[in-house]
Amino acid sequence: MSPRLITRIGLFAALIYVLSWGTATIPNVNLVFFIVFSAGFMWGAVPGMIVGALGMGLWSAFNPYGPAMAPIMVAQMVGAALSGVVGAVFRRQNWHNRDGWLLVFFPAACGLGCTLLYYLPVNTVDAWVFQPFWPRFVAGGLWSLISVGSNLLIFPLLFRAARPLYIREKAFS
Fold first, then answer.
1. Around Cβ 64, how many Cβ atoms within 10 Å?
2. CATH code at 42?
3. Chain segment 81-114, per-residue pLDDT in tens
4. pLDDT by residue (tens digit) across 49-77?
5. How confident is the model at residue 160 (pLDDT cuts 50, 70, 90)?
6. How many C-beta atoms surround the C-beta of residue 36 within 10 A?
7. How many domains does the chain have?
8. From CA 97, how far away is CA 99, in angstroms rounded?
9. Can you give the residue range of the structural domain that contains 55?
10. Is the bond into 67 cis (omega within 30 degrees of 0)?
11. Under a CB-based contact definition with an 8 Å cutoff, are residues 156 and 108 in contact?
12. Are 58 and 7 in contact (CB under 8 A)?
């Protein structure tokens, strides 16, 4: 990895932490998924996963509500890292070069995928730790619907706004 890429990974991880503070008062609505997705989209799956794991690790350890328990923190880091893979797959499929409704549909589908890939391990570990498993898992799934809805809006809106950044970053890589 080049020093330039390492710097960008650090900046995006810090951005996750800072923006998580900014959205802490709005339950389950945050920009973490899109930031990690963008890192994976611009630099590949591994850098995207590192951004997700580092950024979520920072947030899970140092958030205003107290640190997450170790198993839940690991699940959050793994779930966030998976958004980087979604971004890399999105770029590889060349869906970002579409226009019209496809430029809304594909980013929205990626937002849905990122959210589900995050909450599946997090809700599973949460239900396993706090028991009883099925009621806790179902309640967590219902609670995560807020995040699903917000990411169905965030991804298409921010992807269009960030498209020039992606083009510029590609020119420098």
1. 8
2. 1.10.1760.20
3. 999 999 999 988 887 677 788 888 999 999 999 9
4. 999 999 999 999 999 889 999 999 999 99
5. confident
6. 33
7. 1
8. 7
9. 3-172
10. no
11. yes
12. no
